[in-house]
UniProtKB/TrEMBL annotation:
Catalysed reactions listed for this entry: 2 5-aminolevulinate = porphobilinogen + 2 H2O + H(+)
Chain's gene name: hemB
Pathway this chain belongs to: Porphyrin-containing compound metabolism; protoporphyrin-IX biosynthesis; coproporphyrinogen-III from 5-aminolevulinate: step 1/4
Top-level taxon in the UniProt lineage: Bacteria
Family that this chain belongs to: Belongs to the ALAD family.
Subunit details: Homooctamer.
Full protein name: Delta-aminolevulinic acid dehydratase
Amino acid sequence: MAYPIVRMRRLRGSETLRSMVRENRVSLDDLIYPLFAIYGENVKNPVPSMPGVYQMSVDNLVRECGEIVQLGIKAVLLFGIPEQKDEIASGAYDADGIVQQAIMAIKKAYPELYIITDVCLCEYTSHGHCGMIQGDRVLNDPTLHYLAETALSHAAAGADMVAPSDMMDGRVGAIRKKLDSHGFGHIPIMAYSAKYASAFYGPFRDVADSAPQFGDRKTYQMDPANGNEAIRETALDIEEGADMVMVKPGLAYLDLVRRVKDEFHYPTAVYNVSGEYSMVKAAAQKGWIDEKAVVMELLLSMKRAGGDLIITYHAKDAARWMGEK
């Protein structure tokens, strides 16, 4: 059937009707807010390239989590910036490390807030790479031990979920084995399964102080030209024990979100990364776009593509806007 029998505009005639037939919605349950912990007291360092994002000492981080809980956001993704860095990333798996301290403090104040921890070594290594190095090579297998120890230390501190982001082969299996053998079989793993060597990460490297000191990450993060490879990576992570998978970045890779979701039917997260966030903020500050409308449309696009969860620096703003209804 076609026009005039079928008139698609009939179902667009009012906000009530549009709401009734709406296929996808963004809710507070979908949002995960990234946080960055740093040593010190009463520290709140603004990140110039990411307006509204801060490095925060644990005391300020706890206060921030109070606001997050009040807004109705239920989950955070926690990163850490150590005082000192070394070749073996010892700050990452130190039981008294910055992430471990932050987990314990947040859980004490807000036990209902779900804490996911980023498991990687780049913030903690003196060379800025996500693994152990030999000359100018990033070594895969020796890195797995340190990643597993990091995940274990996060779980022991009280993390609810761990999220390995390093892209070393076999890291999900190594972490699953380590957690299970130490009584943490109940801790889920959210794998950064399709993580690309993207130009959209620039501002994140400012906030996390994690830029590599030599070379780049193209030998372990994925080539932006490849799609089938993302399916293979995701399949391997699931086989090794991942409970959730992720596509990172978001906007330029929504085709992969759809493919991953259709192929595996697994809970799928989308990381709305720093460069995507900063572009929107910059355009909004210039008055070139309606920030609220653009942000909500972008988040909706990630849901429409198949994302179940969205990690986004826009989470607090989005929560406020949703609360205005």
